[in-house]
């Protein structure tokens, strides 16, 4: 099989056994890799009813098909598990090299089950699979853990958790080479298995079907990318380059726990302010030809630290009312080292600040004052969350569970969809994204559909004239965009390249695996993947009623370009039913037998 490692590795941490099996070529062609393999194997081996922290839950890692092929920006690897935040489907995609190392070791899917009897790390060196003690690494940061394992073992790629993962913070992340699998608590699932790290080294070549043709395609798209308008903006300012546009031109930059859609203190957290002052170099993911990551130096820090991504500028910036970029940068570093998803972290801190300012909780509850705009309080509460100290023990569960535990009306301040804190798009003024939050298999998410690009500009791919302030005709739009993005996650291609590639991957697929696939065939695979994720959720207990938007989305945006816009409960219901219809599901969101047979997944009908 060209462009594949050719095998599946299943490791049981309880018994210490590792089993290698060949990857079925038919499965590979039906699901491609990455997201597709996750959707297939989660449904095959994970009991959807099991608790996220049970040894019977699995952690699955699958590199995208193009990982190791050289396809520009095609280096993404996906992590899958039952969600620690909401008990349903979870996936998280990162640009670290662990997927490449797995393929070079001969594996397209790594399935980790069971629980070690003590803190351990998994060592994969081609065919050699060992479970080794990590007790000496307890309490180490994500980066310290990787450094020590590399010092002891040699040239391995290491994915690790920090203190938050050890303490089962429900939005703990996994770090690999300063790239994170952040959302939904993948790090907490690792922690529940007493698994501190995964270290992989592979020494095999990844064979390409037509290497000469692939080389020419890589050259072609490299030239296209470096001459694309987004290349300069992403290179200079990173993913946050459109922050001011979101704030001023669209009025959809969530602020102070979604009280407002405009942040009046945005100046210093805007990359146009801090990048020219502090950035020293760009940082790219595996196979990246248009790097949007930044490294920068501030006098407040020793050495270089990671630049701040757009979502984090929102979550730890505007959502907490923090105007000083130094505090946002330090908070971002704490999250990366302790292993915490920055979006959920900012969601729970903004939630706590809102509760404090509205008198729901006080200083005695928190152990400190925590008002919007207080950078020192932000840093302190993040540490409390990582260690589950005091109020941090409650907030470490995410806003949905925390609001239930706090009571006293806290739930009306809890901004989430199906337990997941949302990203940086005020959907009151981007109504298609409101539906995307509801339909996303992992809860409030912008990346499962990527529809913000379409909604905010009015045109993308085959759509044009889209009105972001209207709730009409959103069902097919969001379903189509989800299918589109499932293909990207199966191939392992960065979504910041979506406007360059669209779905024109037929030549690259022919060069890599020896088989062309056009847009229609790829979208059919994407639809199959999306339906499998939904099937897993239904078996896990998903109900249509779980998809409701938070109360704050029903309150009009108070100021800015989108002033007065909101999503009514009637619009919420109408868009959801429109989506079900577009998917070929019934009015309760259950896929019909006809649809599943059409997609060739009748084996999953129960």
Low-confidence runs: none
What structural category arises from helix and sheet content? Answer: alpha+beta
Percentage of residues in strands: 5-15%
Strand order of the largest sheet: 2-1-6-3-4-5
Do you know the CATH topology of the largest domain? Aldehyde Ferredoxin Oxidoreductase,  A, domain 1
Domain unit count = 3
Describe what you observe in this structure.
- With 606 residues, the chain is α+β, with helices and mostly antiparallel strands.
- The protein has three domains: 7-201, Aldehyde ferredoxin oxidoreductase, N-terminal domain (Aldehyde Ferredoxin Oxidoreductase,  A, domain 1); 253-413, Aldehyde Ferredoxin Oxidoreductase Protein, subunit A, domain 2; 427-604, Aldehyde Ferredoxin Oxidoreductase Protein, subunit A, domain 3 (Orthogonal Bundle).
- 40% of the residues lie in helices and 13% in strands.
- The protein contains 25 helices and 15 strands.
- The chain has a six-stranded mixed sheet.
- Strand 4 (77-82) and strand 5 (89-94) form a beta hairpin.
- Helix 1 (25-31) packs across helix 2 (34-45) and helix 2 (34-45) packs across helix 20.
- The two termini are 32 Å apart.
